[in-house]
Amino acid sequence: MIKRDALLEIRIENIPARFITSAESQLETGARELLAAANLPFETLKAYGTYKRLVLHIIGLPGKSEERTVKAMGPLAKFWKDESGAYTPQSAGFAKGQGTTPDKLTIETAPKGEVLVAMKVIPARPAAKVLAEIFPRLIGALEFPKTMVWEETRVRFARPIRSLAALYGEKIVAFSFAGIKTGRYTVGLSAKGSRVINIPSAEKYLKILENANVLVKDTERAKALTNEIEQVSKRTKLEVEADSELFNENLYLVEYPVCVVGTYDQEFLKLPRELVHLVMKKQLKFFTVSDSEKKLQPYFVGIRDGVSKGQKNVEEGFRNVLEARFRDAIFFYERDLTEPMENMLNVLKSVTFQEKLGSMFDKAGRVEALAGWLAAAVRGLDTEAVRKASRLVYADLSSNVVREFTELQGIMGYYYAKNAGLSEIAAKALGEFYWPMSAKSPLPSTRESSVVSIAGKLDTLAADFAIGLIPSGSEDPHALRRQALGLTRIILENDLELPLKETFSRALELLPAKAAGFDREKTISALLDFTWQRAETLFEEKGFRFDEVKAVKEFFIKNADLLDCRRRINDLHTVRKNPDFEALAMAFKRAKNILRQAKQSAGAGPDEMVFEKDEERALYSGIKALSGKLKSHIANREYEKSLMETVAIKGALDSFFDKVMVMVEDPKVKENRLRLIGSLVSLFEDVADLSQLQQ
Amino acid sequence: MNFQDIILKFDQYWAKQGCAIIQPYDLEKGAGTFNPATFFGSLTAKPNRVAYVEPCRRPGDGRFGENPNRLGKYYQYQVIIKPPSKDIQQIYLKSLKAVGISADEHDIRWIEDDWESPTLGASGVGWEVWLDGMEVTQFTYFQQMASFELNPISVEITYGLERLAMFVQKKKSVYDLMWNDRLTYGEMYRTQEKQFSHYNFEYADVANLRRNFDDYEREIFVLIKNGHYLPAYDLVMKCSHSFNLMDARGAISVSERVGMIKRIRDIAKACAAAHVKANEPVSISAAGATQA
Lengths: 695, 292
Fold this sequence. Notes:
The structure holds two protein chains of two kinds.
Chain A: E1 4-12, H1 17-37, E2 44-50, E3 53-61, E4 68-76, H2 89-97, E5 106-110, E6 113-122, H3 127-141, E7 161-168, E8 171-172, E9 176-177, E10 180-181, E11 185-187, E12 196-198, H4 205-211, H5 218-236, E13 239-240, H6 244-251, E14 257-263, H7 273-283, E15 287-290, E16 296-305, H8 311-337, H9 341-347, E17 352-354, E18 358-359, H10 360-377, H11 383-392, H12 400-404, H13 411-419, H14 424-431, H15 447-466, H16 480-494, H17 500-509, H18 520-541, H19 546-559, H20 562-575, H21 579-597, H22 614-635, H23 639-646, H24 650-659, H25 667-684
Antiparallel strand pairs in A: 1-3, 1-7, 2-3, 4-6, 5-6, 7-8, 9-10, 11-12, 13-15, 14-16, 15-16, 17-18
Helix pairs in contact in A: 1-3, 7-8, 10-11, 10-15, 11-14, 11-15, 13-14, 14-15, 15-16, 15-17, 15-18, 16-18, 17-18, 18-19, 19-20, 20-23, 21-25, 22-23, 22-24, 22-25
Chain B: H1 3-16, E1 20-21, H2 36-39, E2 48-57, E3 73-82, H3 88-98, E4 108-112, E5 116-117, E6 122-131, E7 134-145, E8 148-149, E9 155-160, H4 161-169, H5 185-203, H6 206-225, H7 229-248, H8 254-279
Parallel strand pairs in B: 1-2
Antiparallel strand pairs in B: 2-3, 3-9, 4-6, 5-6, 6-7, 7-8, 7-9
Helix pairs in contact in B: 6-7, 6-8, 7-8
């Protein structure tokens, strides 16, 4: 049988760049599943996408699906015929349902006994018919981050579908979707007026579009874009700065990439680099250009969709838009450079942070105080830099540039600080104040920056929790989760010995009178709990198991010392590799359960006089021997050593559980044995709650 | 092409597409979407094709006549097509041709921008259309208006006339635009921009504005009870503008903002509900409820 290709093109109105690659892989996965289920084999298939078409190309499909016989199990064999030898209604019904007759049924042994079996033949079907069922299912199953409705059938899709081309070989695969009937036509480049293009066969599709300058294949388009950019670098003898995110975005904004290169006025290079990048890359999607020393040059590279006609218009237009934005920026920036930062700070007196928490100026004062307090606790800091910086962390919020480009908060603080004569370290503390910007972003790069950054996060967390603005579900307007995660990361990466209970308490003390009326203990608890949840995530990311982390939680609640908790988890993690320890931990868990069931709490140790069996004495002797050793290990935070020592008790404990029954009739003996177990449990409890460990 | 000619050309073009060329609504508003022709027009099942110039006020955007690109008062050209035809994108591109902009001589880009108006409880899916890098149109398929799921969908095409004119006339400052052969935009509007910026940022009476907002809000509910949702909606627009003015004065704190926006959304929704009830008792349903 001759094999032919199949093609599905969903032509849509400009679909967001970020939707496309997922849609492509959904098409591929979905198609494989549906073709297999329909018994229609194929050689290969691939999906492609541009901003106006999603394409599925299947290569090497036979004209018919494969015939297949499927076995169906039916009622019990005894229901095949009645006493007179006639077929029963059950067997007739079953046979009919499987498309056969009762005389063709056979008998097989199944778990429930002997059953009737029908062999259902699923006949071969023409590929075009099979595809006519598969294609609309594929389209309907596509998922997008956001969908919309646009016509009467109210089908939901990412953007309006305007045509559907579906072919098997030369034949149209006929179906309808969202009010559109399939056909054999598509359109060419938007820049050339989206002229109608006829597709004689599935095999010819890609070539025809390529001839019309539509690069449907993502990889080919990427190659073309890379080439274009390289040409620009060669022509200008400069480097177009690589940016894979920007590259991908542009890749899905065009069907035929054409570079538009232009220059802009040198004077705009006075602007901070981050500002230039924000305007050019984020706002206008242009590539920046630098020389061999990575110094920014006054060139822009925009990517146009198709045709080189009117190139001068586009270049001029791009330059006008770019320069207009730069002109605004320079106007604002130069104004800001003449404004003393103290003035910028004073303006914040009239900017509310939160109704009960006062102004941003008030917040700045609290951050300054907290940073000073923290700086005294952390060794080896440039305290002068911390003092100067912490005062001005929010000053740039009232600058013209940050009011216009809010993403530049902090960043502009750096430049204004340098301009005002602050040291590099102090200025950096301002620039890195909001770091990390996301879960995996860089942390503040110096200890000074870290302390200032922490001060800010502490105030925001304490203030919001005090007035009950606790994040829930998707409601987290002040990004408290990010603040807490940043706080935790900074402490752990920098090994900062910070007693968090005191620290949060300090932050709460600084809050204004209007925010008073909160329960201090409860709030600190809530803050610690919130912080711990973030720490849990971090520890698990580092490779610690969730039960190890859980085993240490109570120590955090008690001592609020992240570094100490990390040490405990780490040591527990190491010691666990020892098989003896794992078994011991299970025995410990069992011991704890016994105590819980007997509702026994920690109390005095057992009375040795009441012991009846040797195993009790041996266990208690072991416990006493260990007790002293463990105390000294724990005092030195040698958790691993402490845990390893306890392995020594395993023998005595196993014997005890083997030979001794705890819950005996005699209350005195029972009570004593429970006390014995209690003293065992307390051996372990100073490192971690081993009862949390799972196999 | 002069500013007034751009308007005339659009009027001609959209009239040819079957749009009723209507006049702007005579109250202060921030966008053409607030015009009853769009607000109420999008809510029923009745087909609707209208086009109109809409003067808009955005108090916070004023720049005292000093910024060549930013204005506190400007003109939108608003088109509503309901239901949208299959070739609506092409029809829009041809409208650009009508004012002398050829797709193949420029770079026309559709940048994802799902428009939302929290005060109107409206949302849509659509794009900013960029002409050689400059945004000149917002093209949106409305999905919801005043919290009602829409059926059929309306397409809203909103041109920023000053932006478009600057592009067509190749001007770097809005004040250099030629309105006709004799008058510049600057001659006509620079003083207005200056005085209104001072008013918006420095002199608007905040206490009055607050009082007005509360008074209008009260009146709206009384009017709706009596079935007079059209005059009620006038007051909704007044509330919205009062909010914009208070905002420009910096009188609305971060926490207050959310509450006020909700108040406007609620009064807008009340008007929409009354309109829907009066016109199509069995047709459109509020988001979530099933159709009667």
